[in-house]
Every structure is written in C-alpha cells, then in structure tokens.
Write a structure and sequence with these properties.
8 strands, six-stranded parallel β-sheet, binds magnesium ion, single chain, alpha/beta, binds thiamine diphosphate, Rossmann fold
C-alpha cells in the first residue's frame, strides 16, 4: 500500500471533508489522490497542520474536516494533540501517515517512537492503528469524533505531485471550497 492509495481510501470514506495536509508525503499524496483538489496544503510550515485543522473545524462546524499529517510533522507539533483533546471538535478526523521517517528531507529515521494513537488514547480520544488498505473504511466508520488514526506504510516511491505549491493560490481555492454550502 502506498501513500496515494491510502489517501484515496480516506477520500472515498470522507468524500465531502475539508482536508488540511501537512508538508511532505501528505501534501503530495493528497494532490495525487484528489486530482489536485482545493485542499489546504501547508507547504513548509512543519508542525502547524493540526493546529490549523483545529481552526478550520471550529470555523466550519457543519463540515467534516480531515487533518492528514506526516509522522515527523506530528512530533514537531505534538502539543496540538493536547489542544485536540481539550477542544474535542466533533467534526475532526486526524490521520497520520506513519512511515517512520522524515522522507522528504532524505529519509532520516524518526528517531523517537511514533506512538501517536497510544498518546491520543491516553488523552481520551478515539483511536485506531491500521496497516492494510481494507481496514481504513471500517475503522473510520466505527470511530467517534474527534478521532486519531495511525496508518502504517513502508516508505517508497514518492507520490508524483510536488509538495510545494503557491500559498496564495492554495488559500483562495480552499476559501472557496470551505465557503460552499454556507449562507
Ligand atoms: C520547522 C521546520 N523544520 C524542518 C523542516 C524541514 N522539513 C521539511 S519536511 C520535513 C520532514 C517531514 O517528515 P514527515 O512529516 O514524516 O513527512 P514525510 O516526508 O515522511 O512524508 C522536514 C524535516 C521544516 N520545513 N520546518
Ligand atoms: Mg514521515
């Protein structure tokens, strides 16, 4: 299973979600899986994606929000897990792409245990750990929100699209997508 296939399965399960993707594989795979959809790609702002997703979930409570994060990203912004546990947005799903590495910067090992679901469970959140494509849809269907899902996959070929896209373009496309359905 590769990252693009994982994100395709996530989007199939959450077709109307507003997605926030961290830098690295998360952005490239979301671009590939959504045919470059109007999602919020965080560019180089490592460690910020979950905090941003919490803001999107608060601003658009009637929409489902998907935070798609790399494992290195989550280590850098780990305090946001406690914000997640404190705010508990009922419309937010956090998915962590766990490849055990900082892949985009040359494949350095994470260097610390990537045990995010255990931390989230200790904080009172719904969690799942999956390593098979077929487990994704049933896991998402079974989880209350907010929830955090670790998806484990082996680092491999990079998803095609670049993770670096023009922030003002990302912003205007996402604002339009987020405004759909609002009065
Ligand atoms: C504050 C900060 N430190 C370091 C970097 C450099 N950097 C960019 S991506 C990345 C690794 C991301 O790892 P992960 O979130 O696991 O994504 P992956 O590349 O494995 O998909 C690093 C260290 C950065 N952009 N910002
Ligand atoms: Mg990684």
């Amino acid at each position: 299973m590769d990252a693009t296939a994982i994100v395709r399965a996530l989007l199939a399960a959450e077709p109307d979600a507003l997605a926030v993707a961290s830098l690295g594989t998360a952005t490239s795979a979301l671009r590939a899986a959504s045919d470059d959809g109007p999602h919020l790609y965080m560019g180089g702002a490592m460690g910020s994606a979950l905090a941003v997703a919490l803001g999107v979930a608060e601003a658009r409570p009637e929409r489902r929000v998907l935070a798609l994060l790399g494992d290195g990203e989550v280590l850098m912004g780990a305090g946001s897990l406690w914000s997640l546990a404190g705010i508990r947005p009922p419309n937010l799903l956090v998915v962590i792409l766990c490849d055990g590495h900082y892949s985009i910067t040359g494949g350095q090992p994470l260097g610390a245990p990537g045990r995010f679901a255990e931390v989230a469970a200790a904080l009172g959140l719904g969690t799942a750990v999956v390593s098979d494509l077929g487990e994704i849809a049933p896991s998402l269907a079974a989880l209350p929100r907010p929830a955090l899902v670790e998806v484990h996959y082996a680092p491999g070929e990079w998803p095609g699209p670049s993770p670096f896209i023009d922030p003002p373009v990302v912003r205007s496309r996402f604002e339009q997508a987020a405004a759909e359905g609002s009065s």
